[in-house]
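User: structure tokens for this one?
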Amino acid sequence: MKLAVSGKGGVGKTTFAALLIRSLDAQGKHVLAIDADPDANLAAAVGMPDANKITPIADMKELIFERTEAQPGTIGGFFKLNPKVDDLPEALSARLGHIKLMRLGGIKTGGSGCICPESALLRALITHIVLARDEVVIMDMEAGIEHLGRATAQAVDKLIIVVEPGRRSIDTAVHVKKLASEIGLQRIAVVGNKIRGTGDETFIKKHLADFDLLGFLPYSDALIEADLEGISSYDTDSPAKTAVKAMITQL
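Assistant:
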């Protein structure tokens, strides 16, 4: 099962992804977690030890040069568009239980879609992970789908967009769905987060009526406190864990 998680910053996308990853691990699944959002720290949310010491792949200049035969930070010129990446998930992942986690990092030159060695390596890695790996893959994306090419998008089993009751969050979900449809990704679902009651559920159902609704996560002070204290969302007593397990069954 290959899942990508997207959504506007601050909606709880990484918290949901971490709950999903840890819940699957608890079920004995082998999970490859990909932190593809430069502004998030999925490792800390999952509960990885020394999460702040995990080096993003985009910052591994020697590796990028070795695999692409071009210096990171350069744009244009000649470099390998299909560098060897099949050994990287085993070699570079941080580990916790059955979970392997890789942090992609951000491209600092020309945007995430730049024609540069870093982008070539990350795209090749994502393609390998989605098309060739046999474990469960959970990708915590930016508020978009920049890391997905057409081939990988069509192989993703589900794009899950996390939303909260709010206009900007709804607008982001509509935008992400439009981007996904342009590269052939049609299997899209929505998860409502920070739900305070039936009014919030009704708001999301009304404004995203043409989306597949996977479920709702209740508003939880425990999750907010866990985030502030640097504790994994899975290691707190929150009703969200039960809700996520139900979503896994549905998936």
